[in-house]
Design a protein that fits this description.
alpha/beta; Aldehyde Dehydrogenase, Chain A, domain 1; 2 domains; 14 helices; globular; binds NADP nicotinamide-adenine-dinucleotide phosphate
């Protein structure tokens, strides 16, 4: 497979020399090169998006927007296999996960293509003869910053509603997955009916350009997916321009397993939920809270399921977990987990950095600890890798209190055959998503987002349009116009 270099795309043209290497995290091999931009490219992209918003007919052409989105989805479908392979090579995730991500992204583009033609407002008659028309209008220029862990779906769930709404955009992909994002966007950028400047993309190894998206008064909305720490910086940077903020931030998902659950059946599902994208998913299982009567069974089953996972290159069909995104991230996560081993009540599975054929890649096998104190820093922090903490509870109230003992509020899961309990606990958990007898099920048509420090706003689903639109009230007085 030949991998095209990734240049910036500004005002309908490719610019910049691709000079920085992008590496395969499974081997360290150079995959290709991308152009390294910054504030200059970001400013040019913002100018182009502003002009396109004000001068092209994009914002007022819902059928054109649908056509462009549908054609993009069809073009991606035609190359779904090679895109999934590139995603695995640049990000490291196993091929089955990459294929699933590409399929979900195509489905999501199609979903927002439909919504491009369904952006209804409403009309009221608050007093006789008075017409109050409420219109949903595009917000303007949207800045979109996406991380590397799911670079297809995290881009599409922001770009889809932004374009459907009639916004023009500036996209800043993560440096680690710039080549993949360039391949994903290529058919959209090449669309003959896409006006120049509607979609602009710049790459950068740092974040000076991304920062400008937050501070610029010419950017009307920013959609950031990344860590809570950077989300707070963006919120501060955006304050002066008071732009619309969509922040999809960190998580620390708890999985509550009640006494009636089949531990041997649940444990492998929790192991998979914790190690999806090598534990580098915002909604990955991080804490397993089990009823005290089943603690010993869960210790054995979970350590067994995690220990049995085959770790290897994502392109190898036998692999169930690939490498982390790069060696620097792997070393940082491994050091954090090593400190947790020292502090935890019990180490149930000690992950290692494999040697031999895997020595050149960013691999780290899964780890599991048992700990009683939910205030411990390694329980409270989001450790972005294959690391799981097991805790025990005596009753439902303690389970909910423990699960809610976190500053995050992205997602959680409840495992029980008792339907009434499942619903009761789901309502008591302070999370944007709660799964019952499942984990990590994310759908194009269903809103996702965080309570508390997991973020602001929702992506996926109809409500994602709220982040990229404004509501306008047009009041018309009673009586004939002009009399
Ligand atoms: P990150 O460290 O926050 O970085 C995200 C992006 O922001 C990077 O491109 C980064 O560039 C850039 N950035 C850093 N400082 C910035 C600033 N001051 N202004 C603007 N941009 C700035 O996150 P990550 O490690 O890439 O991704 C992992 C995090 O994303 C985890 O916390 C995970 O939970 C979260 N996430 C959340 C969701 C969700 O839906 N809630 C989904 C996926 C991931 P640099 O590389 O130069 O720092």
């Amino acid at each position: 497979m030949s991998i095209r270099p990734a240049q910036h795309w500004i005002d309908g043209a490719a610019v910049g020399d691709a000079t920085l290497p992008s590496l395969d995290p499974a081997s360290g091999a150079v995959l290709g090169a991308f152009a390294d931009g910054g504030a200059v490219e970001s400013a040019a992209a913002i100018d182009a998006a502003r002009r396109a918003f004000e001068r092209s007919d994009w914002a007022a052409a819902p059928r054109l927007r649908q056509r462009v989105l549908l054609d993009w989805a069809a073009a991606l479908q035609a190359q779904a296999g090679s895109l999934a392979e590139l995603l695995t090579r640049e990000n490291g995730k196993v091929l089955a996960q990459a294929r699933g991500e590409i399929a979900a992204s195509i489905s999501e583009i199609e979903y927002y293509a439909g919504l491009a033609r369904h952006l209804p407002g409403h009309v009221l008659e608050p007093e006789p003869g008075v017409l109050s028309t409420v219109l949903r209008e595009p917000a303007g220029v949207a800045g979109i910053i996406v991380p590397w862990n799911a670079p297809a779906v995290l881009l599409v769930r922001a770009l889809g509603p932004a374009l459907a709404a009639g916004c023009t955009v500036v996209v800043k992909p993560a440096a680690q997955t710039t080549l993949f994002n360039a391949a994903l966007l290529a058919p959209l950028l090449a669309h003959p009916q896409l006006p120049a400047g509607v979609v602009n993309v710049f790459g950068e190894a740092g974040h000076a350009g991304a920062s400008l998206l937050a501070t610029s008064h010419d950017v009307d909305a920013i959609c950031f997916t990344g860590s809570t720490a950077v989300g707070k910086t963006i919120m501060r940077d955006a304050a002066d321009s008071m732009k619309k903020l969509s922040l999809e931030l960190g998580g620390n998902s708890a999985c509550l397993v009640f006494e009636d659950a089949d531990i041997d059946a649940v444990a492998p599902q929790l192991a998979a939920a914790a190690t999806i994208i090598s534990g580098q998913q915002c909604t990955a299982a991080r804490r397993v809270l089990v009823h005290a009567s089943r603690l010993d069974a869960m210790k054995r089953a979970l350590a067994g399921a995690l220990g049995a996972l085959r770790v290897g290159p994502g392109l190898d069909p036998a692999s169930q977990m690939g490498p982390l995104i790069d060696v620097a991230a792997r070393d940082q996560v491994a050091a954090r987990i090593a400190r947790a081993f020292d502090a935890a009540d019990e180490v149930l599975l000690r992950g290692t950095t494999p040697g031999g054929a895997l020595a050149g890649g960013a691999f780290l096998t899964p780890s599991l600890v048992f700990h009683r104190d939910s205030a411990a820093d390694f329980v409270q922090e989001e450790i972005f890798g294959p690391f799981l903490v097991l805790e025990a509870f005596e009753d439902e109230a303690e389970a909910v209190a423990r699960a809610n003992h976190t500053v995050f509020g992205l997602s959680a899961s409840v495992w029980t055959h008792d339907g009434a309990r499942a619903q009761r606990v789901a309502r008591a958990l302070r999370n944007g998503t709660v799964w019952i007898n499942a984990h990590n099920r994310l759908l194009p048509e269903v809103e996702t987002g965080g309570y508390r420090q997991s973020g602001l706003g929702r992506l996926h689903g109809y409500d994602a349009l709220a982040d990229f639109t404004e509501l306008k009230h047009v009041y018309q007085a009673p009586g004939m116009v002009g009399r």
